[in-house]
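User: tokens in, sequence out, please.
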């Protein structure tokens, strides 16, 4: 591809490009560029929302550039306020460390490991505040050049101030900390979701302050979650995780609306959207679910997941490979759900029962009954089954 075609391909679907001229200049320089993308390990799983940006990062890698994946083990303890209407809870170090361990393995389901540099931002941010704080003078020098008025330009901060919702000092500092990541790794281009634009531009500002050539910035649309309303997020429970079981991944993708399906095609695949829209919506959706499941689990697992879906939902049959759980004594149905791994805790189990999401041998159970051990099939929702044996 020539430079114009390359830029067209790299900016396909982008919301912001700051600036297109900067990006063109960097790409035409012949230099191997450093393309930065940061993720805060606030949970154990990456999801398809992250995949939108990781896909774009892979395109840069395919052109010979280096992906710099920053695991925000320091900034995750601060909490990114982007797009939030309230203060985020601060995570402890042990939780963040446990989450961070899973991120690189998951990211390599998309990225080329040989063209990826993994960095943790405790490397350069912790010294600012460590004891003795030898780096505090460096942080002071940065902080004195960033004005409060500049930080409060953020749309989400303005909205929270108008609503008289509190904004913590940590949240105000967050864009400065993330921006300094760009200085530390000398990034040429930074990628992110469209809600990250303020933080990414802060990186440009801080690079100028440190006499570095400012990075180009490219943001991608936020992927709407399976609920069809809010952005995909673990906190909203509307996500499809990279590590979801193939049957669950396929089933979740089959649950999205037709309109959202086409958005997923555009943001998560390279399929011709016009050709997809010419297909029957159900077949198109199965194709989408198969493509994405195959990407994370392989073609064989994707085919098995499709067969499972069609067996259970299209023909209303029970799956053949149900996990077996032995119930040895009577007890509340909510306890059985937790013990069988169908609910994370008693509160969730009771909520599922109250919502009518639990069935015994196909019959809906709406009360937390005492379950007498017997051979039966316990089902939660549309996709989770256990064969109960006494």
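Assistant: Sequence out:
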């Amino acid at each position: 591809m020539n430079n114009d075609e390359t830029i067209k391909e790299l900016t396909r679907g982008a919301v912001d490009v700051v600036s297109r001229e900067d990006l063109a200049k960097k790409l035409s320089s012949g230099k191997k560029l450093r393309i930065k993308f940061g993720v805060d390990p606030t949970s154990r799983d990456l999801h398809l929302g992250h995949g939108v940006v990781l896909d774009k990062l892979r395109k840069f890698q395919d052109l010979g550039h280096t992906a710099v994946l920053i695991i925000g083990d320091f900034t995750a303890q601060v909490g990114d306020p982007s797009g939030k209407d309230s203060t985020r809870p601060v995570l402890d170090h042990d939780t963040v460390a446990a989450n961070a361990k899973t991120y690189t393995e998951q990211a390599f389901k998309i990225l080329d490991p040989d063209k990826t540099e993994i960095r943790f931002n405790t490397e350069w941010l912790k010294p600012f505040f460590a004891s003795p704080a030898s780096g505090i003078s460096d942080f002071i020098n940065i902080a004195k050049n960033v004005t409060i008025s500049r930080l409060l330009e953020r749309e989400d901060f303005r909205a929270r101030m108008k609503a008289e919702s509190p904004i913590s000092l940590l949240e105000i500092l967050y864009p400065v900390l993330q921006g300094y990541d760009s200085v530390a790794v000398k990034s040429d281009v930074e990628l992110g979701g469209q809600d990250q634009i303020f933080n990414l531009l802060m990186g440009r500002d801080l690079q100028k302050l440190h006499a570095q050539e400012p990075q180009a910035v490219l943001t991608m649309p936020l992927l709407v979650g399976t609920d069809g309303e809010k952005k995909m997020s673990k906190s909203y429970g509307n996500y499809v995780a990279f590590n979801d079981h193939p049957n669950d991944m396929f089933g979740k993708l089959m649950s999205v609306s037709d309109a959202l399906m086409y958005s997923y095609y555009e943001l998560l695949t390279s399929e011709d959207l016009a050709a997809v829209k010419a297909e029957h919506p159900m077949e198109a959706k199965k194709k989408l679910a198969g493509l994405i499941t195959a990407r994370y689990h392989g073609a064989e697992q994707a085919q098995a997941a499709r067969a499972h879906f069609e067996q259970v939902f299209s023909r209303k049959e029970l799956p053949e490979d149900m996990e077996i759980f032995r119930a040895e004594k009577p007890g509340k149905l909510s306890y059985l759900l937790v013990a069988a791994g169908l609910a994370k805790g008693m509160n969730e189990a009771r909520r599922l029962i109250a919502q009518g999401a639990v069935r015994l041998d196909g019959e809906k159970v709406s009360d937390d009954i005492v379950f007498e051990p017997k051979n039966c099939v316990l089902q939660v929702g549309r996709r989770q089954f256990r064969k109960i044996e006494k």
